[in-house]
Fold this sequence. Notes:
Oligomer: single chain
Amino acid sequence: MFEFIRSHRRWMQFILLILIVPSFFLVGIQGYDSFMSRAPELATVAGQPISRAEFDLAHRNQLDQLRISEREKFDLAVADTPAMRESLLNQLINQRLLATVAADNRFSVSDETLRNTIAAMPQVQDSGRFSPELYRREVTKLGMTPTSYEARLRSNLAIARVLEPIGDSARAPAEVVAAVESALTQMRTVQLRNFAAADFRSQVTVTPADIQAWYDANKQQLQVPEQVQVQYVVLDEAAATQGVQVKDEDLAAYYEQNKSRFGQPERRRVSHIFVELPSGASEDARKAARAKAEDIARQAAADPARFAELAAKNSQDSGSAAKGGDLGWIAPGSQPGALDKAIFGLGANQVSGVVESPYGLHILTVTEISPAAVKPLAEVKEQITAEVRKQIAAQRFSEMASQLSKQVYDQRDSLQPAADAVGLKLRTAAGVTREGLLPADKAGPGAAVDSPDAALLNNPRVRQALFSPDVLREKQNSGVIELAPDTMLAVRVADVQPTHVPPLEKVSEFIRATLLNERSAEAAKKAGEAALAANKANPAAAPEGFGPAITVSRENPQDLSRPVLDAAMRLPTAALPAFTGVQSGVDYTLVRLEKVEAGQSDAAAKERLARQLSGVWGLAENEAVLRMLREQYKVNVTPAAAEVIRGDQDQSAG
């Protein structure tokens, strides 16, 4: 058949033309093109679409970046929410909008601005200076060439010019800064009277009928989500190290191979006389400096005992000159090549000739020599044992990891063979849900939250594996999940408990405690409100039951809870004393305000506050401009966007 098509190509083209052309007339050329190539539109900016494909690409990139940055902490349920998807779509719309505005207004960026922007990036600087090599390396990491990167950066800088002048020039009005400063620094002297719910607990009762009624009315609140009982094996450093024995001959061999690490190299105490020689000095200046240094060197060599005297008199290194030229103890390799070679080529109290370094000219002498010393094996045996054990464990870990990875797939319906093959204990835990670990009272015996491995089982990647179709429904082994370079595990679902409401007898004590707390809090509030009414009716009366006066401000809350502090700071000050009451947790607190004083800020604090408020003001102005531009450029969000935000359609990024 294929040979027939090749031999009769012109006939086949004619037949295809007959079949295809009528379809254009049936659906229209534009409709045919849309059917074949157009992806759903989520929004339009000035008539230009933002397609579902663009969104999906940005969505994948966003999730990939989060996976890389958060590593084992990455949780898809947290990272991929309707709010996150809506925020991403708005970012895409704003980017397209600002790019359109920049193009319409012919915003451009000069080559000099582009160069300066790149040169100022810390990641492409070496010792504070632009490094072409680092720049090329960073661009390569992004999968781009310098040309494509610079084109994208130039475009981004041009787009930034739309809003930057607005945000950068924004200044919070002085009246606003003054009002916020006053609110932050104002000091209020208050007294508190607390009505603790615990004090009223003995006055309330809960009957079985109350418990039944609460149970019937709040079953949704009591619902326990779908949970699994887990079988799992953990391979970590402790498992790989278990049973490792280190032989004495291995310790001795390791010690001999690494002897240099267990001692101190030879050190020398050095003094010098320094003569400055600037790097850009003329030939005459260089000759004069060297002549001076050679004269001093001759004097020092003639009488080494005068070295300290000559250093104090002639050295241009003021720090060491006052100490007779003493530089302290110097280890091999710590100085530039010529200096290091000269220092470790001298005998004790011997004076060198003139040695040139990048700093200038030196005359050197060695005043003391501390010979190299190696600690005996007995002294470092414990350290060596730990290092050798760690090396053996690392090799064992690699072998065990390979074996575990193989075994979990060889028999998919049980982890026991894998555990036996690798020498690991098969562990179990209950109460793992898609959202996290259930508390022990809801998970029952063997709750994962009580396990020493709770952090491992609560890891988002582990929960994601447990609730994948093969593991959850088919009860197959997961693959090996690597949570850290030295920690990996494999899991299997042993049992699934569907979403359910526990029977009354299992939650009756929880309901009783809940009702006692609620009714005690209500009793405390009722008593507090009665006392508040009495205080307001007779504010001049001596305060009864209040604690000592304390002075608080928003900057210095004095350990007051947020509700109590807010209530104290919001009280009107026209007539003092003033009173208010506020629920603080299950307790009720009365606040008596007796004095208000203006606070003071220093000039630096005022300036910081003004800058912070101006930054917020600038963001608000940017948002206002974006809203205006959206109207001007007729931004339209389609119904398809709502479906994507809700997650009604399959997300290829997930």
